[in-house]
Design a protein that fits this description.
Length: 379
C-alpha cells in the first residue's frame, strides 16, 4: 500500500502493518473477494494508509475503482464488528463520504472505570447552565451534564421498553420548550405509538400536527426538506456556514428546527425503506445540521438495516439505555456494553458525546410537570 504518512519508525510501521493485517484478514474470512479464472482470488484493493496520530487513528483507504465485490458488502456493520473483534477490541469505523476508508484506533479503548451513580436524579431546570438550546444528558460522577443541540448535532437514542428512553426524550423537550419561544425553536414530532408526544399537541412551537401514521410522517419530512432547500439558498446568498454564522451576518433570528422521531425503526419499516419518509430522513440527517435542522431518532429496536451507515454516520451523539442484545448496543454506540446495563436501575445510560463513552443517570421528570408546562404554553 502507498502511504501518505510522515516518515515512520520501524516500530510504527510494524504496528500499522499488524492493524492492516487484521482488516485484510477480516475481509478474507467473510468471503469478500473475487475468484479468478485460474482458481486464485482477487482481494479488495487498497490505495493508501493515512496516519492521524494526534487523533489516535489510522485510516486504510480502499481503491473503489476495481472492487471485486459490491461496495454495500464492505459497508455491512457486521464487517466492522468482526474487524473490531479481530483487532482486540479496537474501535473501527467505515466511512464512504470522501472515499471508502476503514478507520482503526491505534490503541484499544481502555475499559471504562466502575461508576457510582445515583439511582434517581430529578431534572432541575433552575440549575440549568447558561446557553442556547441546552438539553440535559444526565448526571455523571460530577456535575449534571447539559449539551447544546448546536454542539451535539443529530442524536441517536436507543433503549428497550422500560429502560428510561421515553423519560429522557420528555426531559429534553421540556428543557427546550421552557427556555425558547416559538420564534427561536420549531418542533416536528413523529409518534407512531400515539402515546408519547400527544401531550405536546397544539403547542405554538409545532411546525405541523404530531404525526402518527407513515403518510403524516412523510408529509412532515417533506415540509422540513422544503425548509432545508429554502435555507440553503438563503445561506448561500450571504455566505453563511451555519445557523449561528447566518444570524451574525444577517441579524435574522432564524429558529432552530428540531425533528424528533420516536420508534423510528417501526415507522420506517411500516412505511417501507423506499418510501419518501425514509429517503427524506436520510437527506435531513446528511445535510440538515449546517442549516439549523437537528434530528433526534429514538428506537427500542435498533435494526442495522434501518439505522444504516448513511444514518448512523451522521448521528454525532449516541445515547444507549439498556438494550436487548450486544448487536443492538453496537448499532447505537458502535460497541457492545449497553446490553449489560442493569434492568433494576431505570434511566441508566451510556453516551458517546465526544470520542469516549461515558456513564450517566438520566434525569427523571414527572408527567404532571410535562402537562403543566404544555398547558401553560398553550395558554
Amino acid at each position: 500500500m502507498r502511504s501518505v504518512t510522515p516518515v515512520l519508525t520501524t516500530r510504527q510501521e510494524r504496528h500499522l502493518e499488524a492493524l492492516f493485517r487484521g482488516v485484510r484478514h477480516t475481509l478474507l474470512n467473510r468471503g469478500l473477494y473475487g475468484k479468478r479464472d485460474g482458481g486464485g482470488i482477487q482481494e479488495v484493493p487498497w490505495k493508501r494508509t493515512v496516519l492521524l496520530d494526534d487523533l489516535g487513528i489510522v485510516a486504510f483507504e480502499v481503491d473503489v475503482g476495481c472492487l471485486p465485490v459490491k461496495i454495500e458488502r464492505l459497508l455491512d456493520p457486521e464487517v466492522v464488528h468482526q474487524m473490531q473483534a479481530s483487532l482486540g477490541g479496537r474501535r473501527v469505523r467505515v466511512t464512504n463520504s470522501q472515499g471508502l476508508l476503514f478507520g482503526v484506533a491505534l490503541r484499544p479503548e481502555s475499559p471504562r472505570p466502575e461508576t457510582h451513580l445515583a439511582r434517581r436524579v430529578v431534572l432541575d431546570l433552575e440549575g440549568r447552565p447558561a446557553g442556547k438550546y441546552l438539553i440535559p444528558v444526565g448526571q455523571g460522577r460530577g456535575d449534571p451534564v447539559w449539551r447544546s443541540l448546536l454542539e451535539t448535532g443529530h442524536v441517536l437514542v436507543g433503549g428497550e421498553s422500560g429502560s428510561g428512553k421515553s423519560t429522557w426524550l420528555h426531559a429534553m423537550l421540556v428543557a427546550l420548550l421552557s427556555a425558547h419561544l416559538p420564534t427561536e425553536l420549531r418542533l416536528a414530532l413523529v409518534d407512531p405509538k400515539q402515546v408519547e408526544f400527544q401531550v405536546y399537541r397544539g403547542l405554538p412551537h409545532l411546525l405541523a400536527p404530531v404525526a402518527t401514521e407513515p403518510g403524516e410522517a412523510a408529509a412532515v419530512t417533506a415540509c422540513l426538506l422544503a425548509e432545508l432547500d429554502r435555507r440553503q439558498v438563503r445561506f448561500a446568498e450571504v455566505g453563511a456556514r451555519n445557523l449561528i454564522n447566518y444570524r451574525h451576518l444577517t441579524g435574522d433570528a432564524l429558529p432552530l428546527v428540531l425533528l424528533v422521531v420516536d420508534e423510528v425503526t417501526d415507522i420506517a419499516l411500516e412505511a417501507g425503506l423506499k418510501n419518501s419518509f425514509y429517503r427524506d430522513l436520510i437527506r435531513l440527517v446528511s445535510k440538515g445540521r449546517a442549516f439549523g435542522l437537528v434530528v433526534v431518532l429514538a428506537t427500542q429496536n435498533p435494526k442495522a438495516e434501518v439505522l444504516n451507515t448513511l444514518i448512523r454516520g451522521n448521528m454525532s451523539t449516541r445515547i444507549a439505555f439498556r438494550v436487548a442484545s450486544a448487536s443492538h448496543s453496537r448499532t447505537i454506540l458502535g460497541t457492545s456494553g449497553a446490553e449489560r446495563i442493569p434492568r433494576t436501575v431505570r434511566g441508566r445510560l451510556v453516551a458517546r458525546l465526544d470520542r469516549d463513552l461515558e456513564d450517566f443517570q438520566g434525569f427523571d421528570i414527572m408527567d404532571e410537570q410535562v402537562r403543566a408546562l404544555t398547558s401553560q404554553l398553550r395558554g
